[in-house]
């Protein structure tokens, strides 16, 4: 009797899961045996991987396909024959504890596997990509591996790395072309060029050593740094590399093979390696899984002279940099639409996310002397007010709604524009402007805002300026901005933009940045997602993200200021300066 009750409970759970699968994927579950199965109650969103599926299910027969559904708690697999699927269902359903929290999985037959738009693709290559298998022999592989002495190289957080010819700087995603390394590409590599079916002689080499479980995030090698093609030789272990554009194509790179990225595959498709200890791949023979070993890659590139003029403009750092805003009229229109109007719409939500002061800014405010007048230019919700009760605080912001929030908190604020502050000359002892000037769309307007800050400062008064940095990963450390992305906390994140560009007028288009990633372009539109009662809305804020040294140079160009200190603080470039008597 107890056994019948248990069986009834299992059937009831299975029916519930089958209903959920049908609702989420449109797939029809059936009690009639087929060669197709669905794992009803766990999937990619719960941490299930293709490798785990292969590990537990290949023992029952020849797996033909494994399919994870992005963002869903179900997964699908297909055998070559129905008998294998039947055997697997009988042996596993309700018994194999690989669902979330160690619970058993429930299986059902399905009539067919779903068509998933974002499913990974096997069996073809991105345009311009080529793989030459067995490019080197085992003896040649051993000689090349003998060059891998990393003592004089560097250590990335996720791998060992050594550069020859030129150092690739991961903090700026580029090379310093004026500073070649003393050690060029070893002559032991020369035989490789003679073997190539095309003319190519590189002058930069990066050797990476990956332990099992290590990878590299999806990225496009910086256009302005290197020419076309880029070659990568895989040694010691096979690995699967993912190429992404409008779809994800998985490519097996066999040990001792040469990967040639040319044309579209080099310039427009991102490539990366998922950090994991097992790799899964799918070919004509079905689904396979193998354990990764230590892998060493030799990536050969040729330093580009001058900028890039390729036809793949969205990923091209050279050409997006030329999309400058030339007229003040367009700048005014852009800032109204993509800065001022946006902050009015998101003011409440923005304020909820801005409650913890930056420690260095707080320290600046708290050190001000008794009676000092502090002006916060772009004060937002006033999070830097109220921390020093012995000073006079005055704030200004372009947003009416943010100013009202400040007034409700008892702060003295007024609505104003940082380009024309309605304050007397030399009226402030100190000024802070935190995350404001990067919203101005031309160098002239950014300089004008800084000059206004200097104008209202008394001689000897100090200002502290914060702007977003283009480099959100510096010295292999992620900024707070990137760390806020839960999906990427365990990954190294390189720059990315979506495939979307937005026209802002006068023939100027700006790329839409992928949130929580390193910046690829200097002038971008950054999404802000606002969840309403009915639907989520996305607003695009304009940012000019600063290169290293750019803010410092801009401040120095004013003339009558001396820089006290310049530093990098969690994804921001920061300058503290004092006004001189000049």
From TrEMBL:
<dbReference type="InterPro" id="IPR012677">
    <property type="entry name" value="Nucleotide-bd_a/b_plait_sf"/>
</dbReference>
<keyword id="KW-0511">Multifunctional enzyme</keyword>
<dbReference type="GO" id="GO:0005634">
    <property type="term" value="C:nucleus"/>
</dbReference>
<keyword id="KW-0539">Nucleus</keyword>
<keyword id="KW-0479">Metal-binding</keyword>
<dbReference type="InterPro" id="IPR005123">
    <property type="entry name" value="Oxoglu/Fe-dep_dioxygenase_dom"/>
</dbReference>
<keyword id="KW-0489">Methyltransferase</keyword>
<dbReference type="InterPro" id="IPR029063">
    <property type="entry name" value="SAM-dependent_MTases_sf"/>
</dbReference>
<dbReference type="GO" id="GO:0002098">
    <property type="term" value="P:tRNA wobble uridine modification"/>
</dbReference>
<dbReference type="InterPro" id="IPR051422">
    <property type="entry name" value="AlkB_tRNA_MeTrf/Diox"/>
</dbReference>
<dbReference type="GO" id="GO:0000049">
    <property type="term" value="F:tRNA binding"/>
</dbReference>
<comment type="similarity">
    <text>Belongs to the alkB family.</text>
</comment>
<protein>
    <recommendedName>
        <fullName>tRNA (carboxymethyluridine(34)-5-O)-methyltransferase</fullName>
        <ecNumber>2.1.1.229</ecNumber>
    </recommendedName>
</protein>
<dbReference type="InterPro" id="IPR037151">
    <property type="entry name" value="AlkB-like_sf"/>
</dbReference>
<dbReference type="InterPro" id="IPR035979">
    <property type="entry name" value="RBD_domain_sf"/>
</dbReference>
<keyword id="KW-0808">Transferase</keyword>
<keyword id="KW-0408">Iron</keyword>
<keyword id="KW-0963">Cytoplasm</keyword>
<dbReference type="GO" id="GO:0005737">
    <property type="term" value="C:cytoplasm"/>
</dbReference>
<keyword id="KW-0694">RNA-binding</keyword>
<dbReference type="Pfam" id="PF00076">
    <property type="entry name" value="RRM_1"/>
</dbReference>
<keyword id="KW-0862">Zinc</keyword>
<keyword id="KW-0949">S-adenosyl-L-methionine</keyword>
<dbReference type="GO" id="GO:0106335">
    <property type="term" value="F:tRNA (5-carboxymethyluridine(34)-5-O)-methyltransferase activity"/>
</dbReference>
<dbReference type="GO" id="GO:0030488">
    <property type="term" value="P:tRNA methylation"/>
</dbReference>
<dbReference type="InterPro" id="IPR013216">
    <property type="entry name" value="Methyltransf_11"/>
</dbReference>
<feature type="domain" description="RRM">
    <location>
        <begin position="35"/>
        <end position="112"/>
    </location>
</feature>
<dbReference type="GO" id="GO:0008757">
    <property type="term" value="F:S-adenosylmethionine-dependent methyltransferase activity"/>
</dbReference>
<dbReference type="Pfam" id="PF13532">
    <property type="entry name" value="2OG-FeII_Oxy_2"/>
</dbReference>
<dbReference type="Pfam" id="PF08241">
    <property type="entry name" value="Methyltransf_11"/>
</dbReference>
<dbReference type="GO" id="GO:0046872">
    <property type="term" value="F:metal ion binding"/>
</dbReference>
<dbReference type="InterPro" id="IPR027450">
    <property type="entry name" value="AlkB-like"/>
</dbReference>
<dbReference type="InterPro" id="IPR034256">
    <property type="entry name" value="ALKBH8_RRM"/>
</dbReference>
<comment type="function">
    <text>Catalyzes the methylation of 5-carboxymethyl uridine to 5-methylcarboxymethyl uridine at the wobble position of the anticodon loop in tRNA via its methyltransferase domain. Catalyzes the last step in the formation of 5-methylcarboxymethyl uridine at the wobble position of the anticodon loop in target tRNA. Has a preference for tRNA(Arg) and tRNA(Glu), and does not bind tRNA(Lys).</text>
</comment>
<dbReference type="InterPro" id="IPR000504">
    <property type="entry name" value="RRM_dom"/>
</dbReference>
<feature type="domain" description="Fe2OG dioxygenase">
    <location>
        <begin position="201"/>
        <end position="304"/>
    </location>
</feature>
